[in-house]
User: Which sequence fits this backbone?
């Protein structure tokens, strides 16, 4: 088992929370992990990405080689296109459809979604509205984790334990909303 | 035993906690910040009373760590690569004095300059100081090396450098911990002469440092961190330093190659291992993350052409390595990549919406407008982003504190108005001394301290002079009539601009303290307060 995942988004959008939950679940599943993050200047509203590698054998590089990623999991539609050179020929793009516009030249949405739709293997998820339906728009990143959960090679129950562990100190209500968000994302991705 | 999932930085911290470290000293700097933060947030560290508050700058941090070592206890000091320039004086001299309790310098370099002004390689400093340097390839090694390095430091009585780079500092993996070692008892230096490096003592100490070098080399040769990985090919080998080992192994996996690899992670170089390797291989590719420090060293002036690396174009001369670069060097074949989608635009970092620096730059742009050409000196912090559109406010960013001193020099040359913008934490890091120079010289200069109450760029660490900026400036001798406090807010814009205009017109040293809490730390604080109320 070996999965190479690129997590993408904008600084402050919570991709590191997604990573932390996958990491936790992978560790509990006795898998090896390497997860390279971006800290520092880019976190101020810039494009951020994380290379997450999971395997049952030794992982050497913290960075995924070009053309080798199994999944690009993005919480922002334009950011899902930034790392396509890492995606393997059979790889999936799983992206939220909610644009985060903090640059003046953000592309025309029609053109942007046209580019996304043109990808051979993709799942585009209305993460924010689903999260809102589950109780909190801020859980949109967990909707995306749910949407990707079928591609990660990790038991979804283990990922749910990861959510319980990650949000546990924020109380039962927050855990509940995020579990619901996870399930909603998972169901939707299966149907798409 | 279950593995602990940590960043490379955190593995360094954990290694220190488990190795009986009594204190950690640091000034925040990407990518080193998380070492100290891990200790600050560790309940074990609290229980074992490991001292971990932030220092005012890297020099004060280094000296305090050396003092703790003098007293017999194990100490760590952490910084980013350019921070070691600030701490270079005590660092180099601590190799002359030697240490008592184990002393580790953990320094994190930033090749490719993800968050830095240069990509200097701290291994040069290690050679310069003539001390052991350890360069982990992964998180487990980072932990193990720190754990061992305290004993090594106490054995050779020298500080030991742990050299990290961004990719390891900020990458997570599982780490197995070892049994905790008790902290040292208080045991101050008795032969104090070695710490009084007057020329007469320094000559003795320097001689003993030089004499120690063969022992350091023997330690490297015997080190478990330096080892040969056999391969099928005999005539082509790879020397892989630090994290470059990972890329070598990854690229060989991709290319289905099995070349002999000499993994180097402890310096000075293990002489016998290197010589054997060079005599066995016709060609050797050397992979170093950072400068070609050892490539240059091994090539020598009369380069015999046996080496391939950054200096002959086999690898790019600058920037960090990755599996693709190494694969290309091994196979000569580029991996084809799809064209960048046309619809994609850049998303550079920017000042947060509502950030107080924004108001400072808008005000400065406005009041400087009548002067035509605008020269606002600045330096390192979130406010450096004032260089980018829509502000385009600042004209320099060289090093911490340089805003004040460069503006002073320009003022001395006759530039009017001479203005600079510096953050509160950067001001206490190394802006204060420059302000003293300006006061003594009566340089006509306006210093704007854009005070957001925190060290924001690195994630909101404590600002050492918080709440005392006015008294610091007054204490340094700035005329209190020209220390002006303002709150950079849109609704106070007219009053604030009047203050700026008045002080720009003043032919002397003036300070404008533009003070408003960082909106990131403010929103975190409010969230916490709300949680406590609930």
Assistant:
């Amino acid at each position: 088992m070996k999965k190479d995942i690129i997590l993408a988004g904008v600084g402050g959008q919570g991709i590191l929370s997604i990573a932390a939950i996958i990491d936790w679940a992978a560790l509990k599943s006795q898998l090896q992990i390497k997860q390279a993050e971006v800290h520092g200047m880019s976190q101020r509203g810039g494009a951020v990405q994380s290379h997450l590698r999971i395997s049952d054998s030794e992982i050497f590089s913290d960075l995924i080689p070009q053309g080798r990623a199994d999944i690009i999991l993005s919480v922002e539609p334009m950011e899902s296109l930034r790392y396509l050179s890492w995606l393997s020929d059979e790889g999936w793009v799983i992206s939220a459809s909610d644009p985060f516009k903090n640059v003046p030249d953000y592309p025309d949405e029609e053109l942007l979604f046209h580019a996304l739709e043109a990808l051979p293997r993709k799942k585009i998820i209305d993460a924010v509205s689903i999260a809102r339906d589950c109780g909190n728009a801020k859980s949109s990143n967990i909707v995306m984790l749910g949407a990707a959960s079928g591609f990660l090679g990790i038991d979804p129950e283990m990922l749910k334990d990861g959510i319980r562990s990650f949000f546990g100190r924020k109380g039962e209500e927050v855990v509940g909303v995020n579990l619901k968000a996870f399930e909603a994302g998972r169901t939707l991705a299966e149907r798409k | 035993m279950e593995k602990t999932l940590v960043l490379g930085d955190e593995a360094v911290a954990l290694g220190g906690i488990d190795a009986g470290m009594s204190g950690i000293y640091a000034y925040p700097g990407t990518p080193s910040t998380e070492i100290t933060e891990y200790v600050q947030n560790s309940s074990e560290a609290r229980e074992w009373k490991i001292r971990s508050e932030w220092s005012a700058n890297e020099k004060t941090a280094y000296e305090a760590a050396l003092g703790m070592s003098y007293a017999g206890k194990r100490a760590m000091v952490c910084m980013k690569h350019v921070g070691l320039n600030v701490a270079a004086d005590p660092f180099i001299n601590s190799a002359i004095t030697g240490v008592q309790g184990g002393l580790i310098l953990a320094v994190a370099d930033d090749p490719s300059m993800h968050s830095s002004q240069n990509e200097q390689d701290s291994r040069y400093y290690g050679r310069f100081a003539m001390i052991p340097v350890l360069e982990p390839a992964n998180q487990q090694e980072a932990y193990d090396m720190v754990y061992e390095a305290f004993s090594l430091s106490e054995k050779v009585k020298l500080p030991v450098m742990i050299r990290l780079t961004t990719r390891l500092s900020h990458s997570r993996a599982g780490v197995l911990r070892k049994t905790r070692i008790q902290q040292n008892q208080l045991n101050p230096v008795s032969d104090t002469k070695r710490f009084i490096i007057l020329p007469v003592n320094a000559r003795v100490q320097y001689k003993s440092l030089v004499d120690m070098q063969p022992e350091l080399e023997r330690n490297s040769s015997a080190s478990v961190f330096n080892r040969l990985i056999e391969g099928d090919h005999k005539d082509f080998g790879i020397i892989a330093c630090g994290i470059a080992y990972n890329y070598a192994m990854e690229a060989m996996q991709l290319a289905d190659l099995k070349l002999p690899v000499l993994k180097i992670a402890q310096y000075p170089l293990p002489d016998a291992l290197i010589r054997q390797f060079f005599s066995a291989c016709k060609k050797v590719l050397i992979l170093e993350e950072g400068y070609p420090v050892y490539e240059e060293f091994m090539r020598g002036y009369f380069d015999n052409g046996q080496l391939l690396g950054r200096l002959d174009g086999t690898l790019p001369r600058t920037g960090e390595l990755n599996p693709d670069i190494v694969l290309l060097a091994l196979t000569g074949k580029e991996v084809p990549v799809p064209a960048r989608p046309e619809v994609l635009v850049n998303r550079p970092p920017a000042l947060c919406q509502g950030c107080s620096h924004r108001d400072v730059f808008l005000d400065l742009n406005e009041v400087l407008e009548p002067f035509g050409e605008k020269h606002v000196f600045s330096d390192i912090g979130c406010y450096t982003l004032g260089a980018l559109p829509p502000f385009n406010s600042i004209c320099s960013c060289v090093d911490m504190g340089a805003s004040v001193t460069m503006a002073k020099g320009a003022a001395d040359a006759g530039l009017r108005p001479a203005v600079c913008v510096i953050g509160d934490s950067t001001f206490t890091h190394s802006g204060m001394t420059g302000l003293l120079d300006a006061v003594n010289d009566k340089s006509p200069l306006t210093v704007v301290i854009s005070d957001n109450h925190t060290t924001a760029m690195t994630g909101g660490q404590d600002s050492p002079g918080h709440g005392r900026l006015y008294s610091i400036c007054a204490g340094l001798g700035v005329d209190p009539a020209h220390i002006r406090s303002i709150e950079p807010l849109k609704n106070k814009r007219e009053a604030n601009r009047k203050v700026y205009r008045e002080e720009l017109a003043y032919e002397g040293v003036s300070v404008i303290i533009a003070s408003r809490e960082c909106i990131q730390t403010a929103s975190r604080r409010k969230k916490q307060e709300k949680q406590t109320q609930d």
